[in-house]
Amino acid sequence: MTQAAFPDLRLRRTRRTGWSRAMVRETTLSPSNLIWPLFVCDGAGAEEPISSLPGVSRWSVDRIVDRARDAVAAGIPCLALFPYTQADRRTEDGSEALNPDNLMCRATAAIKQALGDDIGVLTDVALDPYTSHGQDGLIDATGYVLNDETVDVLVGQALNQARAGADIIAPSDMMDGRIGAIREALEVEGFCHVQIMSYAAKYASAFYGPFRDAVGSRGLLKGDKKTYQMDPANAEEALREVAQDLAEGADSVMVKPGLPYLDIVRAVKDHFAVPVYAYQVSGEYAMIEAAVAAGAGDRDALVLETLLAFRRAGASGVLTYHALHAARLLNE
Length: 332
Ligand SMILES: NCC(=O)CCC(=O)O
Ligand SMILES: [Mg+2]
Known about the structure:
It contains eleven helices and ten strands. The protein is α/β, with parallel strands linked by helices and 332 residues long. It has a domain at 31-255: TIM Barrel (Alpha-Beta Barrel).
């Protein structure tokens, strides 16, 4: 295509007024594009602020339901739940993940009982919130995370969550073959309507620090997660990860972290044409809040611009700790 040249071509013409900018806008952002991650803790009437995530708290099960009501009122379609497991319930094998009465199951059931299909509940499948060593799976004597043995436990964890009423199972562990194993078990156990959103391209990132505070695994984790999470240097490998999870029965896939990996979001969208989600992770949230605290930027503008960028890159939606704030801004 040939286009006109200056002065016939003046690209500023359509930018001159608000109504005109609205007419040529290519990307939209609405509350329905947001998924709100929430942290659950023990107790009643409890709110525990997380210092490395200013503005984010853990909530006890009774108060999580109020947060879910806030989300519904703001037009957010889905919550993502993560538990803060007390140290005395953490074990080498993470067996609390299989307890039908654990925090995740109680929170899921409470939200579903109160709000039914007014909101979706997405549950995290991985063992890091339950293990005494903070790794996402079972480890051998050298500390190496075992794949197939871990997958067996993840299947039990996913079924445990489905029985509690989870709408979307979201495996974040990066074991090979877990999507197929979970999908098969869900079918066999009568959960054919339960979706799987796979953390398909999850990178071994330095941006997860505050999340580990939030679920209580920061001090426990020795070493890193580089033997199962992806190398930040790799993009082609992300496409292989996504292809595998789609072939095994994932309904949607996720790229994580978010902003530094928008090239991966775009590549996945272009190659597979499936719903792609991005996780604007805890370190990204903390960076925005630190910028605001330092007087280096305006929170509302930073939040909306970053979320719009995910949509421009091809994301169907974004998991973000700013979800409620952003949804309220978008509703104004
Ligand atoms: N499985 C969920 C996460 O690891 C979240 C990471 C973050 O928000 O930093
Ligand atoms: Mg994989």
